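[AMINO ACID CHAIN]
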Amino acid sequence: MITLKEALTLSKDELSKVREELMQNINNNKHIGAYVEQLTNNEININADGVPIAIKDNINVKNREMTCCSNILKDYISPYNATVINKLELAGCCAMGRTNMDEFAMGSSTVSSCYGKTINPLDHSKVPGGSSGGSAASVAAGLAIAALGTDTGGSIRQPAAYCGVVGMKPTYGRVSRYGIAAYSSSLDQCGPITQNVEDAAILYDIISGYDTQDSTSARSVDYIPVTPNLDSDKKFTIAVIDNFIEDASEPIKIAYERTIQVLKDAGHAIIHKNMMDTKKHISSYYVVATAEASANLARYDGIRFGSRVEGKDLKETYIKTKSLGFGDEVQKRILLGTFVLSSGYYDAYYIKAQKVRHIIKNDFDSIFKEADLVLSPVAPTTAPTFNAFKTSLDMYLSDIYTISVNLAGLPAMSIPVGKDKQGMPIGLQLIANSYDEQALFDCGLSLEKEVKYEN
């Protein structure tokens, strides 16, 4: 598949041929289910004549359906573009299709979509990750030049690691959330999923910057484009978190140690650190995320937003609408979030979780006094098989390495570094200090050059 960098140099006629080739690939690979259109037997929608970028189904594109892969939003047509879509169009790109996702971005496998599951293009018995599994699968399978996903607790980086592509989560506030359906407002961030690090930098530059329409958009920090200043020869001090690796599988541990050596050989300095137990990260994350989800999803009641199911009175209408409109995982998280925000439990759970979140941020701040970046696993295993998660807790534990980044609001990038014995990709993540995306991409480019990963 042509890279984003190459596609941006093509003429209108050349781009037309690329789009035709993409459509043919998409039609020939409907079984992957990377796009909602593949699962519903509809034509892929392309907005304009620019470079086509696959768009996750929780990002508003004007005059197009946007459902967050939930029954409650079926047939909702967006009246406006998200800011990231406007920025794509200004840069000569355009929105292509709706990539499949876990319902309302709540999941780690892309199986909770109301349209059906997406499969991992490298092994059809395995999940592509989630919640941006459709975006990662589309890039890995050659069904997209690049894609946009959203990351609340690893939902870009984890599927990128499972599918052997690059996935990047920007600093919180660096990319506008205007026009992106919220799961957890203080954690969500939109970012690129691409074939390589340079493409990720290009797409990041396109969508980044201050937005007056987003109250959480960072306005006090100057935005300097990353791509023109990329330098893979820069040397960095990289921290490795020794106690993090304890929960990883043997293939991840081997790849981690090998990558540390690769970075040393490339001239980077390695220092060893420890952080708070990842189980506390999990606890803090799921209290904060579900509490915010409970508040954000209250609007989908069949009155303000969402498909209404009529009852004999208002209470029954609410109950029927939400019971039939939301899937099981979404209902679980709304119930948990409502509980931790309820009178008598708010201090015991929500406030305590926010205090733990502050400690996690302090841990990172302390590390970044001595290091430029942190190297960490993305997930404890490579892509699991379907039905490997017996309980919701099993699924939540697959996020142990990614959620701390969102709690601290930091930028991070998943890069494929090798494969396990079954040939499944292993991704590791680099984590940078707030707003230091330049160091993240420079070191990511250096690592990519040294490991020479091929799908």
Q: What stands out?
A: The mean pLDDT is 94.
